């Protein structure tokens, strides 16, 4: 899913399936819905076969498409959301207008007419989402999370007891990783865990045996040197090897 919304992003993986939807035109929400619908269509058959698809994309908004795909295959997952950001804005609270900053909130039911309803996502209750290592919250996000049922934990507290029961979708925005370990991110936030710490925590989520799909969102700029490409290739391979 080599897209940051409708903009192409290079992700150095050899994919079994590359989702290349025809973008319908219209506003950004319509492009996102087309991308999510195509994602769900690619994910559902794999989940139905009992596989655990690993989806790479350029944007967190694809997360809802991955969840919808597992639902189309009969799963009823909760979501574990690794991200340096909260992604819990609404259209009303976003100060940037960046739709990706609303991704998790959309998965838990915000603006269904713009997002979930358009590709058949059944939104999750906010208590079915856990946010891991979100450390750059805008004021409205902090306010929402203070009273929301969505949980928040640091990477080192990702243990089976901290996770929701039942099936899980594992969502990782790679910007949860400290930018020193992953240069070239669109929204870098210092003070994060190392790539190894994030991979280890993801390993613990997968070790529950309850993960039905994995989404790795890669909102990064075009690599500016060979070293960045190598770092990205290695990270993608490490996710594939989990
Ligand atoms: N998943 C991300 N990269 N999110 C970045 C969000 C940045 C900021 N909170 C915003 O809404 O504009």
TrEMBL record:
<dbReference type="InterPro" id="IPR006035">
    <property type="entry name" value="Ureohydrolase"/>
</dbReference>
<dbReference type="InterPro" id="IPR023696">
    <property type="entry name" value="Ureohydrolase_dom_sf"/>
</dbReference>
<keyword id="KW-0464">Manganese</keyword>
<dbReference type="Pfam" id="PF00491">
    <property type="entry name" value="Arginase"/>
</dbReference>
<keyword id="KW-0479">Metal-binding</keyword>
<keyword id="KW-0378">Hydrolase</keyword>
<dbReference type="GO" id="GO:0005737">
    <property type="term" value="C:cytoplasm"/>
</dbReference>
<dbReference type="GO" id="GO:0030145">
    <property type="term" value="F:manganese ion binding"/>
</dbReference>
<protein>
    <submittedName>
        <fullName>Arginase</fullName>
    </submittedName>
</protein>
<dbReference type="GO" id="GO:0004053">
    <property type="term" value="F:arginase activity"/>
</dbReference>
<comment type="similarity">
    <text>Belongs to the arginase family.</text>
</comment>
């Amino acid at each position: 899913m080599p897209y940051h919304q409708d903009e192409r992003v290079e992700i150095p993986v050899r994919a079994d399936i590359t989702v290349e939807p025809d973008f319908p035109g219209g506003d950004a929400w319509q492009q996102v819905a087309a991308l999510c619908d195509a994602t769900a269509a690619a994910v559902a058959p794999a989940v139905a076969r009992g596989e655990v698809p690993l989806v790479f994309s350029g944007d967190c908004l694809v997360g809802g498409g991955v969840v919808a795909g597992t639902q189309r295959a009969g799963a009823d997952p909760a979501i574990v959301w690794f991200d340096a950001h909260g992604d819990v804005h609404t259209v009303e609270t976003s100060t940037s207008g960046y739709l990706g900053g609303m991704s998790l909130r959309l998965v838990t039911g915000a603006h269904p007419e713009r997002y979930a309803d358009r590709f058949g996502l059944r939104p999750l209750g906010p208590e079915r989402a856990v946010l891991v290592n979100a450390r750059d919250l805008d004021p409205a996000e902090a306010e929402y999370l203070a009273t929301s049922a969505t949980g928040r934990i640091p990477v080192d507290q990702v243990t089976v007891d901290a996770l929701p029961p039942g099936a899980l979708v594992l969502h990782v925005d790679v910007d949860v990783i400290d930018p020193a370990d992953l240069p070239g991110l669109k929204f870098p936030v210092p003070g994060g865990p190392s790539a190894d710490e994030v991979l280890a925590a993801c390993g613990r989520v997968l070790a529950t045996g309850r993960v039905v799909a994995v989404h790795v969102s890669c909102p990064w700029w075009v690599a500016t040197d060979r070293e960045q490409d190598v770092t990205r290739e290695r990270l993608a391979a490490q996710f594939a090897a989990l």
